[in-house]
Amino acid sequence: MSSSAAAASVSPDQENLNRPQTLPGLCLDAVARHNKPDTVSEKRGREWVHISAGEFIRRVRHIALGLADAGIRPQDRVALISENRPEWSIVDLAILSAGAVTVPLYTTQSVDQIEFILRDSGARALMISGGRVLKHARKGFANLDQLETIVVFDAQSAQGLERATTLENVETRGAAIERENADAFEKLIGQVRADGLATIIYTSGTTGEPKGVMLTHDNFISNVQSIIVGLPISPADVSLSVLPLSHIFERTVFYVFCYVGVSVNYAASFDQVGEFLREVRPTIMTAVPRLFEKVYHRIVKKGMSAGGVKTKIFARSLTIGQQYAELKHKGKRVPLLLQARHAVADALVFSKWREGIGGRLRYFVSGGAPLSPALSYSFLGAGINILQGYGMTETCIVCANRPGDNCVGSIGKPFAGIDVAIAPDGEMLVRGPNVMRGYYGHPNATEAVMNDGWFATGDVGYKDDEGHIFITDRKKDLFKLSNGKYIAPQQLESLLKQSEYVNQVIVIGSSRKYPAALIVPDWEDLKSVLRAAGEDVSGTHAEISQTPAAIKLVQKDVTTITAHLVDYERVRRIALLPEEFSIEKGEMTPTLKVKRAVIGERNRGLRAGWW
To answer: At CA 244, angle to CA 239 and CA 249, rounded to 5?
Structure first.
């Protein structure tokens, strides 16, 4: 049977999912069943290189056998540090096939965090890609005697590294073992238990040291089962993997795609996204709001700089698209004139948006942070469906909007088998087979967030009458003004990001009369407008950020955007910051969450004269 015929004849088998499974068994069986020539793909140089189902399975089997031969035993912890590439997924499944526990790390984590996670997890082996990733991480594991084996994907990078071997050597040894004993892999994978530990994922650590979240094979498989029932995904779909695979969101989605038979294409960095979207032409994709914000501002910048009639057409089309999408979403009648104008805007402007992301995308799934309604309506008006969802490392993926029920501003409804409740104080609680076993080595911390099977998420929200869930903020991020009113900073930040001048922002104001904002501007846009107004923009960003003209321009936009809010919620003061928040400076987590305490403390002097 041809690979296309095999893919067309297979659909997810609910009965198979209901029996005890392990992740490698589930995924490898599915890969063999779909038998696709492009199971996973990556771009090398100018060409896309496809890895077939047969090669994918063979590599997983051989690496698993090679690791076992190197002394890796069931429930041993094996760390994995790599950018997105086929080897990440292949090695992950090989570790799990050997019965071991994958401990993923971000390539952007600090050396101190790398050392902490390796030490805390008790990792016996490290799998690492090489090149700049190895150069950065090396100091984090150089003095760890507990690491008995270091396996480097890129052979050249392994030269001169103590205790190191190459992935090729591990595979070669595994292949030899399989030639000697054809049943060796089946015997090895037969030791893996469905209720066994599959991974320890360390939380982002916005406050304090990260904690290791323990997830079992059952946790993941129950989540796969829920998601394939809730979202329309088929073997005909093509995906672009952009989010780090060390993130619970992207990793779970890979298992879903693996089971359903979706072809997965890897992007090693966000810088490649624009180019790869046009080349891969994905039909389904996961992303975070930060990506959509950047894409949106890039589109607006290009459209508004076209000049003359083109700029007028673009600006008008943007307004028409938002109006059209909001009316459609709220179930209201769309006037015939607006329908006609939208059709024109679609032909002149929005068709180019869709072509820019490949031209055949069915939907994005967005997670990790709130997505502003204005941004959602802009994309919806352009015919690009963004389904906001929600999950945590401790819970896998909890809920998402559906293509036929996309409630803008909400995180949708829970997937099958997952319960979500709202506590009396507004905190969201989650219960289900997707919830973690606990925090590794931290029973007290586990007890603090678990109560009778319910996990306390730390997120505050509510449900509407139809069951859609809305998150207003993180419980710990809410702050009280001097008048006793509470402010949800994430909602305000999401609103402020609509401004063409705002790149990044955090809202502060605890115990003060009103909220204020620390804003990293879109410097290109800001300087362009200042220049057109006759202002001098020859100075550094730090110098321009202090000028009254720059502050007044951004403050005016912020005042306009927040004018509809009640008086105490309006942002009365702003400060412009010269540099973006970054992971390297310790201001953001590897999952791009801002560390409010760090940023607030670093700008204490700037805020001193505000109140």
So the answer is: 70
Q: Report whether CATH 3.30.300.30 matches the domain 481-607.
A: yes
Q: Which helix (H) or strand (E) holds 454?
A: strand 454-463
Place of tokens 């698993």: 64
Distance CA 125, CA 63 (A): 13
Q: What are the helix (H) ranges across 245-335?
A: 248-260, 273-280, 289-304, 308-329
Looking up tokens 């005042």 gives: 559
Contacts of 92 (CB under 8 A, 6+ apart): 80, 102, 104, 245, 251
For residue 284, the 8-state DSSP code is E
Encoded tokens for 269: 């960095």
Compute the radius of gyration of the chain from its Cα atoms: 25
**Torsional sign, CA 382, 384, 387, 388:** negative
Instruction: Please tell me what DSSP assigns to residue 157.
Output: G
Longest dimension (CA), the chain: 78
This prediction's pTM: 0.86
Domain boundaries for CATH 3.30.300.30 within the chain: 481-607
How far is the C-alpha of 117 from the C-alpha of 136, rounded, in Å?
15
Cβ–Cβ contacts within 10 Å for residue 81, how many? 25
Residues 446 and 439: beta-carbon distance below 8 Å: yes
Alpha-carbon span 15 to 403, nearest angstrom: 25
| 244 close to 106: Cβ distance less than 8 angstroms | yes
DSSP 402: B
Classify residue 365 by its DSSP letter.
Answer: E
pLDDT in tens, 287-321: 988 788 888 888 888 888 888 899 999 999 999 99
Closest among 232, 241, 281 to 401, alpha carbons compared: 232
Q: Which residue ranges does the chain devote to CATH 3.40.50.12780?
A: 3-192+244-267
Phi, psi dihedral angles at 469 (to 5 degrees): -105, 135
Instruction: Quick: pLDDT tens for 218-260.
Output: 999 999 999 999 999 999 999 999 999 999 999 999 999 999 9
**What's the N-to-C CA distance of the chain in angstroms?**
73
CA 434, 437, 439, 445 dihedral sign is: positive
Residue type, 357: I
CA separation for the pair 44, 240 (Å, rounded): 15
- What would the pLDDT profile of 153-212 be if each residue is shown by its tens digit? 998 888 888 889 999 999 999 999 999 999 999 999 999 999 999 999 998 655 567 899
Residue given tokens 């492009």 in the structure block: 38
9, containing H or E segment: helix 3-9
List the structure tokens of 530. 């200042």
Backbone angles phi, psi at 462, to 5 degrees: -155, 165
Residue 303's nearest CA partner among 485, 521, 525 is: 525
* Cβ–Cβ < 8 Å for 507, 561: no
Residue 164, beta-bridge partner list: 150
How would CATH label the architecture of 3-192+244-267? 3-Layer(aba) Sandwich (3.40)
Q: Are 338 and 359 in contact (CB under 8 A)?
A: no
